[in-house]
């Protein structure tokens, strides 16, 4: 009868150790899962921002190919060009 109690005690102890180990592993995995979900959400936001920027660049590229007035506007803004009869006024902090 004494050996049965010792055996039951060690089995119970092994069960407790396995339960604690499982709980710690589950907690650690849950924390890591939360961290990965946060990183995935941040990546999704960055992806949406990049897709928006790409769509805007594609729109601008299409306009550069098809819209002469837009091309002229971009040349004037970015390169500070003017027609011979025009004057360009620049103020501090603008046109950079």
Radius of gyration: 34 Å
**Count of individual beta strands:** 0
Main pleated-sheet profile: none
Instruction: Report the total helices.
Output: 2
Q: SSE layout and pairings?
A:
Layout: H1 2-66, H2 68-79
What can you see in these coordinates?
With 96 residues, the chain is mostly helical. The protein has one domain (2-79). It has 2 helices and no strands. The radius of gyration is 34 Å and the shape is rod-shaped. It starts with a helix and ends in a 17-residue tail after the last helix.
Q: Which characteristics define this entry?
A:
mainly alpha; rod-shaped
In short:
By secondary structure, this protein is mainly alpha-helical. The chain contains 2 helices and no strands. The chain is rod-shaped and about 115 Å long.
């Amino acid at each position: 009868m004494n050996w049965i109690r010792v055996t039951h005690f060690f089995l119970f102890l092994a069960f407790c150790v396995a339960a604690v180990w499982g709980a710690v592993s589950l907690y650690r995995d849950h924390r890591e899962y939360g961290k990965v979900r946060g990183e995935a959400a941040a990546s999704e936001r960055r992806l949406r921002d990049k897709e928006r920027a790409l769509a805007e660049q594609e729109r601008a590229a299409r306009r550069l190919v098809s819209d002469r007035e837009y091309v002229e506007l971009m040349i004037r803004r970015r390169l500070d060009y003017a027609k011979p009869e025009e004057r360009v006024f620049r103020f501090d902090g603008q046109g950079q």
